[in-house]
């Protein structure tokens, strides 16, 4: 196998994007687009543009040619060309170019603003599978159930029903509380007390109680499907220090006997810590989704750090794209470029063979997810 | 624009060194010089030299030619050549070669040992502006005011007067307590109680009380000038773990409505964390000053990590030089080399255009600071 | 000095492996071998192999040729070729090829499973010196001493006797408790109370009491020999967050007047933090042992991060190999490759001279350890 064959192999690998959201519905003006290419939820200050970022330059570099523009076209030209197509055409264009065979869709975040599982499958001509978010399901149950004591059973039934065709679960405990929670499974009495407190507060929109959040985690683990956890950076509504996956160590020990696989998502800047956990715990895998896209020209450097301690069977690919279909495409494109560069670099420096590099790329981009989620 | 034109552009960019100290007064022997090229305040052990470090090698590589020595001249030859010039000539030589148009001078540290704002301007033939250190001003007020209840108003007046011509404020709460402080603004009663305790202790030389330190921060924020915070590594008198800027997250949220810009200085090894904060909070910028100089041949690698999540409007240049004018020169020289290497590398790998690279270098080295501090 | 001469110099430098364990006794099947090339103590899941890791690929790349196989031979072929030799022949082969002049052997971990100091010297034809583990010695004393009040004196006597010919001490407080311990020296009364509690528990196999662990540290420091501390990643029995060396800052300040040198081992992913401590504290050195081996093709990238703040007099080489003699060889081989690449890179980019690069390599691989331990 030659270096060119290795690059070709990575460029054409049908990826499993094991953690993604839907694509945006309806037209997007400049302000709307700029707000969707940053993790900040604050208005963009008038003295800056979110295009002036690694992600912004990556859009101008890699997405512009799909709109028949030169690479590095200006943000203005890019948005003008984009505005000539409707969102469905844009989605088909970018999803089609991403080379993804399967999307695993987290439907629990702003489900109304973006396409659902079936619509994503249709637009992309790929397979799409659902990942069910634990917190959203509890909030749904609570909004429909007035009796506190009925909630635990109702939640288990709801989860059963919602996951009948799903391939995984997701938790955003990192956002709602952080990983510095008591690792032990809460007792039924503790759960009821916490539910009582929550109902009494009159604010049952968002679950933030640490007892309930860890009850969700344990219930999710008992369900048995792979459990995805948001880890590391994300939007403004986060204490990044509490999203360090090392805080999960004792909880990972306690759930290990139950046999459920845990997947750490994104992880930046704690991706080396994630690699350590994946090294020592058989039931831990991780990805650098979201990260790969946001660090743009630095993707190879960051992905390489994830390839230090991690066993190669524990690496997964995701985009974590949400909104503009450019992001679904960029996640894949930047991952391919970075993986070619990193693994090709190992070959060039004499440490790896091309055959091993190609095999690791396949594990990372596809086979590990196929095994973990039982798909493909 | 060719790669050479990009390199030329960065090499000739007039920098705004937005956080710097004065240059040393009077002659420096070997021991004195060695002690000023380390952050350690401990005597250098007899079995080592601080020249055996990235900074030491950078001095021998980049400063030696300005003294008509070959690059990599020995430390002995370097110091001998240096000793032939007086400090004013050395300062003019190295400041003149740094290509800095504006210095923003923190006058609050060992003001007697180094030149002040005007003298730095004269020696460098550049503009110089003052940055006022909050802790020093409170210590000044306390040393002149015997009545505790008069201190709060006296401090506000003092700050008003001292900042009449200043462009920014600085806090070293990282050294005096760490960032693990209560983020809320203290009440007037709390401040008076803390002042009482401090006066009663009989040791009012250094403010270390966390209530007073955060009162200084809040008072600084209310003053409205950009507020610089020491972040990350520094001298021996520091708990580095408490200088992680993520500890500031909740405080940053609370001050956000006041509209004051906060600048995180140095940041190593928490520069990725600083980049995250600059990404999500519109009022946060940061630099890699001090770091760039100390990591020498590794400057490009470290600066590149700062260029991952950070919006390009949030990057600033500083040297944080203190003492030998070599450091003022090296801060600029190593930054130019590193930025050329990093941004040129993005161009070479096909991710950025030369035009974008030149524009980002200009934002980083000059324009962001000009906008933030209203200078240039 | 040419780049080739620099590479030759590093390739032929007689190393001091200042922290290592013995080589495995008796034959190793595939399962046994796979378990010794991971830090995880969990059974390897049936869907993965520990050969699919940076370390596994490094074994196939660099050890296979010593068994007359092609580089990148398959794991199956490698193990088949290995099985044709007995462990003594394998040890002589790999130890002989490592170019190590002196081994400093930590004898406190699974001493029965691996060779002792003298046997390692004989197999390698190198010098071997002992490093005595504090926790094991206390556990020995406690298993032979039924009277609590006799333990403190008995331990000091035991340590005196065991270290008569030793060159250093070692502590694994990172495993047994973490670095978040009270930094102060415990009183005699506190030690006796803790011993009482331990004896009363009936479980005196492993010392885990934080009072006793820090008494061991202080007693070790008072003994005066260089004290090695496990830092950063290791096996599953660790809270990695508590193995951050910055947690040692206050303890390092308190022991500084006693004049004992402290060596931080491995350090990943906290090696930049270790470099900072080595920068500011004259009595702190560190290595990237274990790390270098486990990160394989990434060794140069990781070692370079250790070369940022650290004075060059504070860098040490170790393999931390345990078990298969491949690891003793790989530690040295990957270090040589990485150091050539990193220091050669500094030369190539114009920052360092070849002569300085060669000198720093010699300090790092040999001379710093020779000075610190008084050997070679």
TrEMBL record, chains A, B, C:
It comes from the Bacteria. Residues 164-375 form the Amidohydrolase-related domain. It holds the Pfam family Amidohydro_2. This is Amidohydrolase-related domain-containing protein. InterPro entries: Amidohydro-rel, Metal_Hydrolase. One of its GO terms (molecular function) is hydrolase activity. It comes from Kribbella antiqua.
């Amino acid at each position: 196998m030659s270096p060119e064959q290795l690059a070709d192999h990575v460029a054409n690998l049908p990826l499993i994007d094991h953690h993604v959201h839907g694509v945006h519905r309806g037209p997007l003006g400049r302000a709307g687009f700029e707000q969707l290419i940053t993790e900040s939820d604050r208005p963009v200050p008038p003295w800056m543009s979110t295009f002036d970022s690694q992600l912004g330059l990556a859009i101008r570099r890699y997405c512009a040619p799909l709109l028949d523009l030169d690479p590095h076209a200006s943000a203005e030209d890019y948005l003008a060309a984009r505005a000539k197509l409707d969102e469905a055409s844009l989605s088909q264009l970018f999803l089609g170019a991403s080379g993804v065979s399967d999307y695993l869709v987290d439907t629990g975040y702003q489900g109304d603003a973006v396409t659902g599982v079936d619509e994503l499958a249709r637009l992309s001509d790929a397979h799409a599978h659902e990942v069910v978010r634990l917190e959203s399901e509890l909030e749904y149950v609570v909004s429909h159930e007035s009796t506190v004591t009925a909630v635990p059973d109702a939640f288990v039934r709801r989860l059963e029903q919602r996951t009948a065709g799903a391939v995984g679960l997701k938790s955003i405990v990192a956002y709602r509380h952080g990983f510095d929670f008591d690792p032990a499974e809460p007792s039924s009495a503790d759960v009821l007390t916490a539910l009582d407190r929550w109902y009494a507060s009159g604010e049952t929109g968002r679950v933030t109680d640490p007892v309930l959040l860890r009850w969700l985690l344990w219930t999710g683990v008992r369900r048995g499907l792979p459990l995805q956890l948001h880890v590391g950076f994300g939007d403004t509504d986060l204490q990044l220090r509490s999203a360090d996956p090392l805080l999960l160590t004792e909880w990972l020990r306690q759930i290990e006997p139950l046999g459920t696989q845990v997947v750490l998502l994104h992880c930046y800047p704690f991706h080396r810590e994630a690699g350590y956990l994946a090294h020592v715990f058989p039931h831990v895998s991780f990805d650098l989704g979201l990260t790969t896209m946001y660090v743009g020209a630095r993707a190879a450097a960051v992905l390489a750090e994830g390839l230090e301690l991690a066993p190669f069977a524990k690496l997964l690919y995701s985009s974590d794209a949400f909104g503009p279909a450019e992001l679904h495409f960029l996640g894949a494109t930047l991952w391919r470029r970075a993986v070619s560069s990193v693994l090709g670099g190992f070959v060039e420096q004499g440490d790896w063979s091309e055959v091993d590099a190609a095999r690791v790329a396949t594990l990372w981009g596809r086979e590990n997810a196929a095994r973990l989620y039982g798909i493909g």
